[in-house]
Structure formats: structure tokens, C-alpha cells
Write a sequence for this structure.
């Protein structure tokens, strides 16, 4: 658990990546202990499961405690759920690590191949965590390298799941130079394998920095013709956001921030971007409000805003979507992205038929909850660069399926006011940066209370507004890059890594020098 708690320091806002070498080295040594001495398969699996579960629990509790902040907004209704948020969710997420480590203990092997085995199983377990039961791929180990701009470009090749495998291999390699109980023993191939890992890290780092440098040259060339974007951050308290008494003030705040003069005169009409569910109104149903908003913006300026949107079917049944609305200068909603991945217990109640009679409901007081959008797509409109929308939680999910047509920008409208000034908004921004790296497409991030940012196509933050402040950013849209391998093949690169590791393991398993003590059934 202590090793897991140490590993969480690699994540934003700390970004202390060297701790990973200590944490994953300890993990390898602990798994070494499961195969020393006679033990049955069930005992070995149980020991491995306990190691993985305890490490992950120690990792997730301190890195996800901030989720409980949302329940303190209405403690009289939700305080009973705080233990579930602080301990219950980490306990569930840790099961994936427990299973991965239980299998690792059964398949454990001597020498350097065990590092590859561990990395492959962690990667497979994290992929399952990101997909089963709606998925929750928050704080994958690969995000521990987010502060290394050059090395982080590896995600453009194999995505964040592949990045997780690479990070674990690198971080666990020091364990090879000492085997507990056999201090003088150094298995054959250790030096060669370690040298190969070091060479691969250097190569990826140099390649990544070269990629960043060539992209910077493109930004200079396109600087005079770039579209100017105004990102608005109103810093509205979550307690005030849906209070009717504050509706007028909230609207005035948005209009005042959006209508301020630009420092220079943009060559083309700028784009104004507002956060998730910006106004406490159904903006699609209020023509007068939309006209007032558009009149407050510079002539010809389109607006991209988060907003609740109601759709009524032929039978009079209404559905509410959490949407990103595209409103050209004319004031009509020309297109929208409906949130596809809703937050469990936040925007909808899983197993509602079972849990609602027990007194549970979603945090957002909108019975019977939001409706999910149908698909991710690229929206193309005159006067607005082609874009793909990410609403809040969606920015955590890598887009493993390529878009039918390539976007020129990603737009992440979010509201992290639920989580105050905790580490949650910092982690959320860090995860969003990897979506830009994976696709090679810049991202506009508009957050109600922060952290709003312009992220370029290499995942670097070009400009941002601090957490808990009100204001706006006027920044030129960075250029899009050529399609990355990940944007074309998705998680296929990650799958190739797993297949390669499996092949190496099978070969090494047949070699006597990598054998471990025989398993004896009790």
C-alpha cells in the first residue's frame, strides 16, 4: 500500500515521475517472494492477488479521494456515500490489479522476462478497467510520464494503454539487479535487457523532442493566419450554478467576459468557447437569450458552448442531453455533440431499478437522468474549424476508434467545480493533454472554475487560467499535425505490444535458465 501511495506522486499536480522506479521495483520483488519455497497454485494466486490489490488500493485512495468533494455540496443527501467514494471505488478498481497480479504470480518467470510479463498483465488489466461496466480509465500508470514532453509523445504511437506498458517496463527494470534472498545472483541477460530498455527510452525521448521541435516550426509558419479563440472561465460556484436567484448574474458574467475587446484585431472572426452546461437555461429553446448572447460578441463570431438540450420525440417523451452546442453568428444551433459517456452515479444511476428503492440517486437532480448521445463524430460548419467534442468525463477516454474524417481541433467543455481546488482538476487536465497527443490535434479546454487551457497537438499547455479564477484566454489556435499512428490504428498498437510480450514469454518459458521453483499443490 505504501508503494502504491508513493506511485500516485507521479500524477498531476505533483508530477514526481522518479518515484515510479521505487514503486514498481518493490512490486517485482514482492512477486519474487510468491515463488520462493513450495506453495500450491491457489496460495500463489492469492498472494499475487493480495499484492496487486493492496498496491492499487494504496494508489487509488490518495489519488481519487477528491471525488468525495462532490458529495459535500449537499451533505444532508449524500454524506452516506462518502465512504463509498473514498474507499469503495478504489476497492473495486483494485480488483483489476489483483487479478493481473494473481495471474502474474502463477506465470512468474526468472530473469528479465518477468518485467515484460508484469507490464503486459498490468496493461491488459488497465484496458479492462477502462472498458468493463462503462469503464473508468482514470490515473492509468502511463499518465505518470505526463511531465516528460518528449517521452510522452510515445502515446501518439501506441496510445495511453501502450504507454502504460512502456512506463511499467522502464520503471520495473531496476529490480533486475537484485533478487531478494539471492543478493549475489544476477540472471543472464540482465545487463543486455537493461541496456536495451535504456536505449529504447533514449530513442523515444529524442524522437519525441524532434517531433515537438518540428511542430514548433509549423506554429511559427502558421502564426499569422491562425484562428483566434477566446476561452471563457466564469468561476461559478457549483452551489450557485443551478440556483434561479443567481441565473441573471451568471448570464451577465458570461456576456461581460465574452464581450470584452480583443487585444488585437483578429484577421478572421474569433471563436468564443464556454464550459459545460454554461447557463442555467435550455438555451436551445430561448431564441431571445441566444440573440442577446450573439449581440454581445464581436460581429461574425460563432459560439461553442456546453448546454443542456431537450429533445421531444413523436410521442411527447422528452430526453435531456448534456451537449456541446455550435451556434454560428446567425444565432441558430447548427450542430451539437451529445455526451456519449455519462458519469455513473453523477449523471445516471446504474441499476436504477435496484438502487433507487434503496435511497440512492445520481448527484445531478434530473430524474430520470441524462440520455446518452449516439456516437462520437467530427462536426463541420462554415466559419468554425472542424472539431470533435469532449464533454467533461469524456476527455478521460482515449478515442481508440479513428474518426471517419480528421478534426482540426478538439473541444473539451467541462465543469470541475464539483471538486473544488483538489487534485482532480489537475489530473483531468493531464488526461486531456494525452488526447491531443494521441490524435495530433490541438485541444481547447473551457472549464467553469478551471483549469481552462489551450493545448497544442503535442500535448503542451500553451496558455491556461488558474484554478478558481474568473477570466478569459485569447489565444491563437495551434496547427493540427499529420495523422498519428494511434489516430489511424487505435489500440491495435497496444495489442501488438501484448502479442509481442506473449511471444517472448512463451519462448523464455521453454528455456531452463528462466525457470522458477516447481509449484507443489497442498
Amino acid at each position: 500500500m505504501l508503494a502504491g501511495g508513493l506511485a500516485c506522486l507521479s500524477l498531476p499536480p505533483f508530477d514526481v515521475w522518479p518515484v515510479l522506479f521505487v514503486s514498481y521495483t518493490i512490486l517485482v520483488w514482492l512477486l519474487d517472494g510468491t515463488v520462493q519455497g513450495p506453495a500450491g497454485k491457489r496460495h500463489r494466486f492469492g498472494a499475487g492477488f493480495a499484492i496487486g490489490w493492496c498496491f492499487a488500493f494504496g494508489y487509488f485512495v490518495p489519488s481519487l479521494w477528491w471525488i468525495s468533494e462532490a458529495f459535500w455540496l449537499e451533505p444532508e443527501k449524500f454524506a452516506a456515500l462518502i465512504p463509498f467514494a473514498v474507499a469503495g471505488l478504489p476497492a473495486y478498481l483494485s480488483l483489476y490489479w489483483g487479478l493481473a497480479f494473481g495471474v502474474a504470480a502463477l506465470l512468474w518467470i526468472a530473469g528479465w522476462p518477468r518485467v515484460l510479463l508484469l507490464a503486459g498483465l498490468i496493461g491488459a488489466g488497465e484496458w479492462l478497467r477502462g472498458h468493463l461496466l462503462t469503464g473508468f480509465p482514470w490515473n492509468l500508470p502511463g499518465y505518470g510520464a505526463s511531465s516528460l514532453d518528449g517521452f510522452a509523445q510515445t502515446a501518439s504511437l501506441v496510445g495511453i494503454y501502450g504507454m502504460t506498458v512502456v512506463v511499467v517496463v522502464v520503471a520495473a527494470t531496476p529490480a533486475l539487479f537484485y533478487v531478494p534472498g539471492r543478493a549475489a545472483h544476477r540472471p543472464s541477460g540482465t545487463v543486455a535487457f537493461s541496456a536495451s530498455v535504456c536505449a529504447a527510452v533514449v530513442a523515444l525521448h529524442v524522437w519525441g523532442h524532434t517531433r515537438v521541435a518540428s511542430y514548433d516550426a509549423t506554429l511559427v509558419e502558421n502564426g499569422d493566419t491562425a484562428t483566434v479563440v477566446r476561452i471563457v472561465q466564469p468561476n461559478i460556484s457549483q452551489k450557485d450554478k443551478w440556483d434561479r436567484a443567481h441565473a441573471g448574474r451568471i448570464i451577465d458574467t458570461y456576456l461581460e467576459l465574452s464581450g470584452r475587446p480583443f487585444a488585437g484585431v483578429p484577421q478572421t472572426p474569433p471563436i468564443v468557447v464556454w464550459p459545460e452546461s454554461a447557463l442555467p437555461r435550455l438555451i436551445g429553446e430561448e431564441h431571445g437569450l441566444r440573440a442577446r448572447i450573439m449581440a454581445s460578441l464581436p460581429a461574425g463570431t460563432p459560439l461553442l458552448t456546453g448546454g443542456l438540450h431537450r429533445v421531444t420525440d413523436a410521442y411527447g417523451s422528452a430526453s435531456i442531453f448534456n451537449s456541446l452546442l455550435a451556434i454560428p453568428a446567425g444565432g441558430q444551433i447548427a450542430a451539437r455533440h451529445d455526451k456519449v459517456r455519462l458519469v455513473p452515479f453523477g449523471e445516471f444511476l446504474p441499476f436504477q431499478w435496484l438502487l433507487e428503492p434503496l435511497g440512492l440517486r445520481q448527484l445531478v437532480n434530473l430524474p430520470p437522468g441524462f440520455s446518452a448521445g449516439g456516437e462520437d463524430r467530427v462536426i463541420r460548419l462554415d466559419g468554425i474549424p472542424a472539431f470533435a467534442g469532449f464533454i467533461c468525463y469524456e476527455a478521460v477516454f482515449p478515442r481508440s476508434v479513428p474518426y471517419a474524417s480528421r478534426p482540426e481541433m478538439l473541444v473539451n467543455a467541462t465543469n470541475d467545480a464539483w471538486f473544488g481546488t483538489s487534485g482532480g482538476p489537475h489530473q483531468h487536465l493531464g488526461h486531456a493533454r494525452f488526447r491531443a497527443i494521441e490524435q495530433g490535434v490541438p485541444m481547447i479546454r473551457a472549464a467553469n472554475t478551471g483549469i481552462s487551457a489551450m493545448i497544442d497537438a503535442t500535448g503542451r499547455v500553451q496558455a491556461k487560467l488558474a484554478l478558481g479564477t474568473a477570466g478569459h484566454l485569447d489565444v491563437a489556435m495551434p496547427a493540427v499535425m499529420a495523422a498519428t499512428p494511434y489516430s489511424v490504428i487505435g489500440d491495435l498498437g497496444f495489442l501488438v505490444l501484448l502479442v509481442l510480450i506473449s511471444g517472448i514469454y512463451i519462448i523464455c518459458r521453454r528455456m531452463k535458465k528462466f525457470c522458477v521453483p516447481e509449484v507443489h499443490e497442498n
